[in-house]
Design a protein that fits this description.
heterodimer; A: mainly beta; six-stranded mixed β-sheet; three-stranded antiparallel β-sheet; 0% helix; B: mainly beta; seven-stranded mixed β-sheet; 12 strands; 55% strand
Chain lengths: 108, 114
């Protein structure tokens, strides 16, 4: 079965601290993995995807097939990073499977 | 720059009413999706469509139906609204799979059933 687990409902850090939002997945094949972000009163939007190996707004995520993880990292958190973050997986079908989300709160 | 438009931002309906949620996209995307978003549960897929007049059930289709008569429009129908369908409903569209194509989401419809 395809499944995405985000173990933390809330992650609270101080400005300038490193951030790691955890994501583990369950899928037997080669998945496509994504991180989506929803800022307050804004629509859900794509942050980054593993296939492009990009860094967006200072965030990076590396696919670790051995640990079946796709953790989202940023070395120095900013207040404007406060948002809801969702990890998502696409296996063999059209649909994305989302995790339950982690709320990141960056305190001044 | 709005690409996926959901017709209503807020809706209040009575138990037993038939409810229509409309979604339109202008990106010529083949795939369209309806999710509901609930705290602690994330996004759960209700229905999706990969072509006009084609539809497939997602993970929680009970109590819902959909219609896709035109490529750009995907409607979610609550046949007889119930209080447990109070939620935020998100529509999304995407290109066919492959190449890491993600979804583009609408701004959501917050439905309250009283």
């Amino acid at each position: 079965a395809q499944r995405v687990t985000q173990p933390e409902k809330l992650l609270s850090v101080f400005k300038g601290a490193p951030v790691e939002l955890k994501c583990n997945y369950s899928y037997s094949g080669s998945p496509e993995l994504f991180w989506y972000v929803q800022y307050s009163r804004q629509r859900l939007q794509l942050l980054l995807r593993h296939i492009s190996r990009e860094s967006i707004k200072g965030f990076t995520a590396d696919l670790n097939k051995g640990e079946t993880s796709f953790h989202l990292k940023k070395p120095f958190a900013q207040e404007e990073d406060s948002a809801m973050y969702y990890c998502a997986l696409r296996g063999s079908s059209y649909k994305l499977i989302f995790g339950s989300g982690t709320r990141l709160l960056v305190r001044p | 720059d709005v690409k996926v438009t959901q017709s209503s931002r807020y809706l209040v309906k009575r138990t037993g009413e038939k409810v229509f949620l409309e979604c339109v996209q202008d990106m010529d995307h083949e795939n369209m999706f309806w999710y509901r978003q609930d705290p602690g549960l994330g996004l759960r897929l209700i229905y999706f469509s990969y072509d006009v007049k084609m539809k497939e059930k997602g993970d929680i289709p009970e109590g819902y139906s959909v219609s896709r008569e035109k490529k750009e429009r995907f409607s979610l129908i609550l046949e007889s609204a119930s209080t447990n369908q109070t939620s935020m409903y998100l529509c999304a569209s995407s290109l066919p799979t492959g190449g890491g194509s993600g979804y583009t989401f609408g701004s959501g419809t917050r439905l309250t059933v009283v």
